[in-house]
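>> received
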Amino acid sequence: MSELLVELGRVATIRLNRPAQRNALNTATIHALIDALEMLGRDSSVAVIRLTAAGDRAFCAGADLKEVEALADVTAVRRYFGGMARLLRALWSCPQPVVAVVFGYTLAGGMGLAAGADLVVAAEDTVFGLPEVDIGLYPMVVMAPIMRILGRRRTLDLAWSGRRVDVATAERWGFVNRIVPTATREADGLAYCEALAARSGLISRLGKAGAGPAWDLDYPGALVWLEEQVGLVALSDELRPDAKETLAAFAQTGVQIKIVSGDNPSTAAALAIRAGMGPDLRVLSGADLAQMNDVQLSQAASQATVFGRVSPQQKERLVQALRDQGHYVAMVGDGVNDVLALKKANLAIALNSGSQATRSVADIVLLDDSFSALPHALQEGQRIVNGMQDILKIFLVRVFYAAMLIMSVEVVSGFPFSPKQNAILTLLTVGIPSIALAAWARPGPVPRGRLVRRLLGFVLPSALTLGLFGLATYLAFVMPTYFRNRPLNPGLHPADYIFPTLPLIQTALTSFLVLCGILLLLFVEPPSSFWAGGDRLAGNPKITWLALGLLAAYAAVLAVPSLRSFFELVLLSPAEYVVIALAASAWVLVLRWLRRGRILERFFNVDLSPS
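>> returned
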């Protein structure tokens, strides 16, 4: 079992993991603590470090006495306690705020560990003390941080008496910043750290680095030192006034934001947080990327949000890694260092105030250097693409099923419908719906992958089933006439047997195709989950009203004699209309089953999913 657990994140956690030994500090644990503090100190994505322990009895009971008793000579003793001194120096020099979340026995070296942290959150059951004197030891090393907090006399009183104090007394003395219930100390301690991490990590680091040395100066010297630090802490980058709104608009349209900067990673992360990108950002530096192979860099490009101190070549690699994952990458840049990445991106965007090199390779130049126009342009582009895809779906389905019917019906009895019937069919199932779909198209994420592949996943099952059901409907009206007339006039061409009733047969097929073409609109833009067969749920009630309106228009054409005659249609019997409606309902169910189960794709072993 590891003697130390480290959890990464905006709030990183170092957890002592020797509960059976009351989390006593042995040499291995001390060295592991030093290594963990140094590692996290180099990680710019970590804003706050939480120092706590496993178990419920003790945060840390001090030195591991079994190991101390085994020390052979004074040199070994000095080496052991020298490790404790190095640990306290690591706490002191750690750039991030360190919060000790303590509980139970926090004694001897455990109290020194808490004193070495910047802040202390203590559970109600915490007991502090320096009991080394009871076993013939003296807390030499840990007195340094404790004396700075409690003062000389209180520290000596604890060291010489060995007495213990409760958490209320420790808070009154200024050793504890906050007391939390024992039962919730883990959650409360984490919440305390997260509240700190929500603030600027850069300012916290600068504040700790600036205020720390003031401890070692006299009052006038401390004032002089801190006065010099004011200018450093006051340095900051100004966000554009519309930065937050622009990033929020990008998030609503499904765009992932990546900050790739040549600046310090902490600076870039602090600005990202101020811009509303949230406190839980994974930050990587150019030095981190330099140690990664292509696979690791691809994973980092996907998972991390902020990249700082990045070279031009690394920017190019990040863009290429995102493109290799199937992303459509837009890169915004203004300097010569951005040219390589801009050329590699799908869409290059340059600022008008940037270098001539960036403007020359850019697809878009922001004339007023304002990003606020980009989300609106993106939304309009998404709306156009989504509308075009919907129109292409109904158009291609119409082309394919019409070709199937013409080729198959021509063998039996000639053309399946007259030119005028084709006109009303095209008007109601393609013409008017195309205008409506273009006008009602909505912005939203465009599925990744090639356009042809995305369309085939919808067009193939729709056109194939509609062609087969259309042929079946046509034959259902042809065959009774054929078998009824053939005995009367044997030896004629099959088309001659059905010619007298051809207008009725063509009307039946046209009515079926009109009904199915109208229902197809509900698959293109699903108004409810019933019609969604793998596509996103549109939830647009206008499509339902459009379908009802088109159905009413076709019913009006059939009902008005002059219109019916113009389009070469005839009235059918109620039973025949019921057959057509049942055939259309069966087609809907079959198409829904095929699309939801991706039956054709599984049968042909191909992937035509829109993602």
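>> The first helix runs from residue 27 to 42.
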